[in-house]
Amino acid sequence: MYQTIESIEPAVIEDYFLAPATEVWRALTDPRLIVQWWGDEASDRMTRVEHELHVGGAVFYGGRFVDGVQGGHEFSATGRTHIVLAPALLEYTREYVDGIPLAGETVIRYELDERNGATRLCVTHSGFRDARDRDVHADGWRRMMNHLDKYFQQLNPGL
Q1: Residue 102: its pLDDT value, please?
Q2: CATH code for the domain of 33
């Protein structure tokens, strides 16, 4: 059976952070912070981020895979911001330059909901051409959530 882009369910990853929504939003949108926490020595590291936080704003994420992952290649992706409702909702497109590691444009949506000083972050990544690409990216978003959790643990070691 041939699968169209619409037939592939999105990757939906959710986690909770012991931080207010404004802090989680800042960690997700401030390029200086993103390159501090996004990545590790086991898979990849984000090295350059530019994200204009207004509708139609340009998006650029660039980094490098470690040796042994995707051949240790550099990667970059561009896109456009669709929705900005700080600190609750951000949606933007992503298309990898040279199709590495994925060809085609996808849509990423961050939804933040704060309750009693803790924030739920739900990442929905849609537009995949096949389930394998979706599942690989779902694993990547899980790693990203772990990196973000470590970042907040370092900021608030007593929690």
Answers
A1: 74
A2: 3.30.530.20
Number of domains in the chain: 1
What confidence score (pLDDT) does residue 3 get? 40
Is position 1 within any domain? no
In a domain, 2, yes or no: no
What is the predicted pLDDT for the residue at 103?
72
Q: Alpha helix locations (H) across the chain?
A: 21-29, 31-37, 131-155
pTM of the full predicted structure?
0.90
The CA-atom distances, in angstroms, between 6 and each of 68, 101, 105, 106, 133 are 33, 20, 13, 11, 14
Note whether residue 66 is domain-resident.
Answer: yes
Q: Kindly give the parts of the chain with pLDDT less than 50.
A: 1-5
What was the pLDDT predicted at 98? 77
- Asked if 156 and 31 touch (Cβ cutoff 8 Å), the reply is no
Residue carrying the six token digits 């959790």: 149
End-to-end CA gap in the chain: 50
- For 69, the domain range is 8-155
